[in-house]
């Protein structure tokens, strides 16, 4: 017991462990994906913002250059510097202005702070990008030397008749604008379309998850940015607080859905549907015996579920599910079609033999079963050797429709039997309306013969009624020879029950029939076989 308990505990603990693992996995994965999505969005929006900023600066610089052209300038003397200072003061936002008179030395520009040398190394004509069709406005990245310090930045130049005006787009000024708390977790580069690097920001070069590029629509520029692993990880840890409870709910939901699907899969209806498709529902045949001679006058086809493991299940557990669904139609049709195949030998050698099949009300109230039977008869189905059992256990809602179908079946030679007579709904109305040929007396009444022999009034009345209506009688559930003999005494010679045989597989039934057939032939004249459906009791 203790071992069992600890086993159960172990199972619960393992399940709990598995569940936590699943939750953790989902939480981490969703947090990671969510963080990645968030950071990517953020990086893209940062890059767009940076690009907008650069574009704005370039537009302002372009305008300023046009104005600078109007400044009177002859040389980089004090007067010239004053003019520039004045101009710079008016256009303070636009950075550093330079002017070179075309007569001056080629790399020397005049600025408010004195002469500035543009480095020749960077004056590569290939790195110049013209911004206008007249090729007077140029955007480029250039190095310059100011007060002995080497720098590199983005310049826009405008070439006029007598001079060249230049403005520096001081992007490094904007470092502080873009800098955030995390310079070591990002990397941003602004480049010209010829890949000349204008400036870069941040330090991440390794641990890059993905790169994003945003192009400017106005200028030949683009911004490259990376989504760094470190940043995503930090964000993920933040969002774990949110995703863990969500994941738990999600995992519970999955568990619930899994259980639901499992339950559905295990449900009898689902299993039966599969079984019908695989033709696992087949007929077993229980012999109906003439108790006077021991001859097998007929059989009742009773459904059995032969499972893939070979076990055979009687219909008690599943017949109601079949009857309440459309599956019963498919099953009945399968059983029906198999009768002439299973019992071919018997039907051929014993023309008076009949096999009965159990129907449900919908088989009678709807036209499809009758139509199928008519169709089968056209293909050679031996309807004269078929009986249908209509049970009193289930009510017939449309007796008129049932009667019409019954008549059509009778016209084919089918025998009509009232099953479980005396136990249910129909009673005398079924007997009259449905033109019943045979009454099957239920085991309930047969049992009274032994259990309370003085209370057989219902049985007697049923027998009497059947006889007076010219019907044949079959007694069901005959288990003892005493019952059998008592029934014969009451004029009920056709009997079905464990006394003679249980429902048998096809092979068993054929063997049983052979034995009884041989015994009969040896004892009686083989031309005078008892016919359950024609014989009238003396
Ligand atoms: P039922 O039509 O009244 O069939 C007779 C039942 O009594 C069968 O049970 C049979 O095995 C059992 N039986 C026969 N002789 C004896 C006996 O001496 N003692 C005892 N205790 N039982 C005996 P089974 O095969 O389990 O079928 C149960 C019920 O399931 C049937 O009752 C019938 O209502 C239904 N059923 C069986 N096959 C079909 C089918 O193919 N279609 C439909 N719609 N119902 C079926
Ligand atoms: Ca029956
Ligand atoms: Ca019955």
Structure description:
With 538 residues, this protein is α/β, with parallel strands linked by helices. The chain folds into two domains: 9-250, no CATH class; 278-524, TIM Barrel, CATH 3.20.20.450. Helices cover 45% and strands 23% of the residues. It is built from 16 helices and 20 strands. The chain has helices spanning 2-68, 78-90, 175-178, 229-266, 268-277, 319-324, 327-342, 344-349, 361-365, 368-378, 399-411, 428-433, 443-451, 457-468, 481-489, 506-523, and strands at residues 96-101, 108-111, 114-118, 129-130, 137-146, 149-159, 163-169, 187-192, 197-202, 208-215, 221-228, 281-290, 295-306, 312-313, 354-359, 386-391, 415-421, 438-441, 472-475, 494-495. The strands form three sheets. An eight-stranded mixed barrel has the order 12-13-15-16-17-18-19-20, surrounded by six helices. Strands 1, 2, 3, 4, 5, 6 and 7 form a seven-stranded antiparallel β-sheet that branches. Strands 9-8-11-10 form a four-stranded antiparallel β-sheet. A hairpin with a 6-residue loop joins strand 4 and strand 5 (137-146). Helix 1 (2-68) crosses helix 4 and helix 13 packs across helix 15 (481-489). The protein starts with a helix and ends in a 15-residue tail after the last helix. Bound molecules: ligand C2E and calcium ion (2 copies). Ligand C2E binds at residues 286, 302-303, 314-316, 319, 323, 328, 332, 335, 358, 360, 391, 419-420, 443, 476-479, 496-498, 503.
């Amino acid at each position: 017991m203790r071992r069992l308990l600890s086993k159960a505990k172990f199972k619960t603990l393992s399940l709990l462990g598995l569940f936590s693992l699943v939750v953790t996995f989902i939480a981490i994965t969703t947090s990671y994906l969510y963080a990645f999505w968030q950071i990517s969005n953020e990086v893209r929006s940062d890059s767009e913002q940076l690009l907008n900023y650069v574009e704005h600066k370039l537009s302002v610089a372009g305008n300023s250059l046009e104005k600078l052209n109007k400044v009177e300038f002859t040389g980089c003397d004090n007067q010239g510097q004053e003019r520039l200072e004045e101009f710079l003061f008016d256009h303070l936002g636009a950075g550093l202005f330079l002017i070179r008179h075309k007569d001056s030395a080629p790399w020397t520009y005049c600025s408010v702070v004195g002469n500035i040398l543009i480095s020749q190394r960077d004056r590569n004509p290939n790195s110049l990008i013209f911004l206008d069709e007249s090729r007077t406005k140029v955007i480029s990245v250039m190095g310059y030397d100011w007060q002995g310090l080497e720098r590199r930045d983005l310049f826009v130049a405008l070439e006029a008749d007598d001079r060249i005006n230049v403005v520096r787009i001081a992007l490094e000024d904007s470092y502080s604008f873009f800098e955030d708390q995390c310079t070591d977790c990002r990397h941003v580069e602004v480049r010209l379309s010829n890949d000349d690097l204008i400036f870069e920001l941040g330090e991440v070069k390794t641990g890059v998850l993905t790169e994003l590029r945003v192009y400017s629509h106005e200028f030949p520029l683009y911004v490259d940015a990376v989504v760094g692993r470190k940043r995503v990880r930090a964000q993920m840890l933040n969002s774990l607080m949110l995703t863990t409870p969500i994941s738990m709910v999600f995992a519970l939901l999955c568990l619930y859905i899994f259980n639901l699907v499992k339950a559905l899969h295990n449900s009898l209806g689902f299993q039966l549907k599969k079984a019908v498709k695989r033709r696992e529902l087949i007929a077993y045949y229980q012999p109906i015996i003439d108790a006077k001679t021991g001859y097998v006058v007929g059989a009742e086809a009773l459904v059995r579920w032969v499972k893939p493991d070979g076990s055979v299940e009687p219909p008690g557990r599943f017949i109601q599910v079949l009857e309440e669904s459309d599956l019963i139609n498919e099953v009945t049709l399968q059983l029906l079609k198999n009768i002439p195949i299973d019992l071919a030998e018997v039907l051929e050698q014993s023309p008076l033999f009949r096999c009965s099949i159990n129907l449900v009300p919908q088989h009678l109230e709807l036209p499809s079963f009758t139509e199928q039977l008519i169709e089968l008869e056209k293909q050679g189905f031996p309807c004269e050797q078929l009986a249908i059992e209509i049970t009193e256990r289930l009510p017939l809602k449309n007796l008129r429709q049932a009667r019409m179908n019954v008549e059509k079946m009778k016209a084919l030679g089918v025998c009509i039997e009232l099953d479980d007579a005396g136990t249910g709904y129909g009673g005398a109305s079924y007997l009259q309306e449905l033109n019943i040929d045979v009454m099957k007396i239920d085991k309930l009444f047969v049992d009274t013969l032994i259990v309370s022999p003085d209370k057989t009034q219902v049985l007697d009345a049923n027998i009497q009624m059947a006889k007076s209506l010219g019907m044949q009688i079959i007694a069901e559930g005959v288990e003892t020879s005493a019952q059998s003999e008592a029934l014969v005494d009451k004029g009920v010679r056709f009997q079905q029950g464990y006394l003679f045989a249980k429902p048998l597989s096809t092979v068993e039934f054929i063997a049983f029939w052979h034995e009884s057939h041989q015994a009969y032939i040896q004892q009686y004249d083989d031309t005078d076989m008892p016919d359950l459906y024609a014989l009238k009791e003396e």
